[in-house]
Design a protein that fits this description.
Helix 1 crosses helix 6 (168-182). The strands form 3 sheets. The chain has a 7-stranded parallel β-sheet with strand order 3-2-1-4-5-6-9, sandwiched between helices. A two-stranded parallel sheet has the order 7-11. Strands 8-10 form a two-stranded antiparallel ribbon. The relative contact order is 0.14. It has a domain at 2-135 and 166-191: Rossmann fold. The longest helix has 15 residues, at 78-92. It has helices spanning 13-22, 38-43, 78-92, 110-123, 145-151, 168-182, 199-210, 221-230, 235-249, 259-264, 271-277, and strands at 2-5, 26-31, 46-49, 67-70, 97-101, 129-134, 153-156, 162-163, 188-191, 197-198, 215-218. By secondary structure, it is α/β, with parallel strands linked by helices. Helix 3 links the parallel strand 4 and strand 5 (97-101).
Length: 286
């Protein structure tokens, strides 16, 4: 079994690819920059250098491929890139099974609008597919590590909103399950953690784990945008995240399910699991 993985150097795929190789699959990792794929090469992946913005570079990546893991970045060209891959698969005429890395977020976000455009094209393509749709990644909380270390505060623009946050490790393991035959063809799997939680709940979890008080300080969306822009995020992605956070504030993803368990065979990791596993990044002065 040979699987083509796009977005190969991203957070999810960097976990997924070694797992597939360890399970005996051949993996072709589609990358734009070969220098960023050294760890994947060392893990045993075949590195294919191409550009999803250039359709002519995609066709050769699909030779002798049985499955495609379709993961695209969150930028302004995401829809075009995803559709380029779908069209290339159709041109190949080999009918690989496509596992789509989608997302579950507010329709008001330009990021979700791009994602939905790819999803709609895949559904209309006549290809065989399934889809995983994770919501807010717990690993996004790493952006609060500096403020937790320095003053014990999490600054976020969720107000009292709640969401079924998910650990990226569970996303990767769910993707693995889907590629190993545990997902139904033509079905979308919304992926969440075991419960819907607020940023207040996150702060409580850190308080217990770190042994010192951690507080959640709600901030306006405008302040959150300014902070992300100062970190160097592209404006399209910043605006998309703000729009996602508006959805979380309003309870868009205030839900939880057991789809992770369906695809992986184990329960999803909780926020308490996350804070325990990554507490070293949040330890500061007592």
């Amino acid at each position: 079994m040979r699987t083509l993985v796009t977005g190969a150097t991203g957070n999810t795929c960097s976990i997924l690819i070694p797992a597939l190789i360890n399970a005996g699959q051949q993996v072709r990792a589609f990358v734009r920059n070969e220098n960023k794929a050294q760890s994947l090469k060392e893990a045993g992946a075949e590195i294919y250098v191409g550009d999803l913005d250039s359709p002519e570079t995609i066709d050769a990546a699909l030779v002798d491929v049985d499955q495609v893991y379709l993961c695209i970045w969150n930028g302004p060209s995401a829809a075009a890139q995803g559709i380029n891959v779908i069209n290339a698969i159709k041109r190949a005429g080999t009918d690989p099974f496509v596992v789509r890395h989608s997302a579950f977020g507010s329709k008001g976000s330009r990021i979700i609008q791009q994602i939905d455009e790819v999803d709609d094209a895949l559904k209309a393509s006549g290809l065989r597919w399934t889809s995983i749709k994770p919501t807010f990644f717990m690993q996004n909380l790493m952006m609060a590590a500096s403020s937790v270390r320095s003053d014990g505060n999490i600054y976020w623009d969720w107000a009292n909103g709640k969401a079924g946050m998910i650990d990226v490790r569970d996303v990767a393991e769910s993707a693995f399950g889907a590629l190993m035959g545990k997902a139904q063809e033509g079905k979308e799997y919304i992926l969440t953690g075991p419960e819907s939680v607020s940023m207040y709940d996150v702060a409580t979890s850190f308080t217990k784990e770190l042994g010192r008080q951690v507080n959640y300080i709600p901030v306006p969306h405008e302040a959150s945008k300014d902070a992300m822009m100062s970190m160097g995020f592209p404006e399209f992605i910043v605006d998309g995240y703000i729009e996602l956070n508006e959805g979380f504030t309003n309870g868009f993803a205030d839900t939880a399910n057991k789809n992770v368990e369906t695809l992986t065979g184990h329960a999803a990791r909780s926020v308490n699991n996350f804070t325990s596993d990554f507490k070293e990044y949040f330890v500061g002065k007592n």
